[in-house]
């Protein structure tokens, strides 16, 4: 069983982010916690889904998360390129957050085009590493592997395929062993 | 009454309530409706949009849906109607009218609270004062019953009533016949003066500044403006200029306002010093451009052929004219094979320099107005579009309502064009618009060749016969307007000598209606020499209809277009000509 991207996005939207509202409202008591009070010009922490909704209704300005700058991302990209294993990502849902924020509030963030390019490059590198490591794992025929620092979205690109493939291999091996035993 | 503080007296009133929106079938109304829709969505105000084509539609649609809400917004419809009389609303209903048609009905202007006109009153509309029309009824006694006091009974001043009744009752015993006669005479004179004032006021029908611009300024006051909204406002204003509905002074003022908004928004989106922002958004520019119809989506030659200015200038319905056009292109240095190709496949050096190439030769050929400032937009890396492309596309989609296609569908197709960054609907509209312009061009060609434009003394008239193929392309008010303007320009350009008098004659054009098979549309255009879009044909139509007892099946909000049954057309035209003399 796997999760499709929409579900991962739903989970990612629960993260908090800082916004500056332009309206006034009292504290809101939501199921996931309380938010507010909102005062114009005063930054406040809200869940990402609420920030996106308010932005679309032109009621706030979004502040970019600290890792969403060109310098940080360039450094992360270099680290990722040099290490053979996966490096820790600044944010568990970096891909989703980037897409959502840059889609809804392009004018609030500086250098949006470059950031988009950098995040896509990091993503491509990590997926390529994941694929080659899965490939190597299957070739060796190992039975245990441990990977660190993978984000949920990346895991879900291989999730339906990998266990299913290993399952098939196991069954084929079983068949091979049993026929071997029989012919003995 | 006029409401000039849009935020406090209009928007704050409808916050939290449910609204009903009636929208007319024209591009300006659609653009304003879209802007308003965006604002309502931002504040989660629930609304229903009902498109209406003419007065009967408005009245029947209102009757069906009046229970839904107490606040009704009318966009580009209803300003020239007496709302209270025609729609018969109950006490709690409030109407907000944003209409660019003028003149406003006096009952709407002087209504107290129930009918609110969004915008300001301007000097040049010459609204008659309250006393001239309603006040001054100091004889609210029984003598008024003897006269045909239909008017005085309605506009009676409520507070003055009772006292005057008591007064007049006491006076009645003292009145002798001579005084009564004097009073009656005074009253009659007052009524005649009132009729004359009203007649002068309602005589000319014209347009004022665009409603879309009004809605955009509301969005600006609410700090909800953005490039998308500005683009829609530009389209609304562009329609008025393309169809010649406003004079050049108003259009210059409107363009100036739009430009200042554009510059302001461009500065806002420039985040910080050297970061260029994102490419993936809507960018609007105001630059000198060729004013050929849809030339970016057509081949240059066809665009030159079907734009009214160039076609009339070169007389492109004759062989000689076509040769002249080829000469012109040769002098510009544009090879014919390139001009015949679709614009996007032309040589890139030619495309980039097109404007400067034309600039060099327009003076010699007297085509100065071919190069004008226009608004262009570009979304991300997609090809540029000009505002007039959008106007053409929307007009074509609106007019695609035929017998078997519901007008409401056509309306929603057009509304879809204005949604953010979805270009399929726009391209479909542009294809339709090309067909429409070709049909109009060919019809003008036929009319001029066969001499369908007849000088009937006080005016020119042209009748397009039923059963003309392609008649469906101009059987609607706006496309008929385009056809009429093209025809008038072309006819005048052909006239010389005695025919020059034709410049001072208005044009009446009739075409079979595309929505109702046995009816025809009649449109009146003011003469070219006047250079002002004020049109008195609407009143003439009404008068002629009364004289001949013809029933006008559709009364459009623009009074210069009406629809009548084709059988009565000749009678109607005869009485119209006798009126215009």
UniProtKB/TrEMBL annotation, chain A:
Residues 67-166 form the GINS subunit domain. Residues 4-62 form the DNA replication complex GINS protein PSF2 N-terminal domain. CDD domains: GINS_A_psf2, GINS_B_Psf2. Pfam families: PSF2_N, Sld5. Keywords: DNA replication, Nucleus. Component of the GINS complex. Belongs to the GINS2/PSF2 family. This is DNA replication complex GINS protein PSF2. It comes from Daphnia magna.
TrEMBL record, chain B:
Keywords: Cell cycle, Cell division, DNA replication, Nucleus. Transmembrane segments: none annotated. One of its GO terms (cellular component) is DNA replication preinitiation complex. Residues 166-177 have a biased composition (Basic and acidic residues). One of its GO terms (biological process) is double-strand break repair via break-induced replication. Belongs to the CDC45 family. This is Cell division control protein 45. It comes from Daphnia magna.
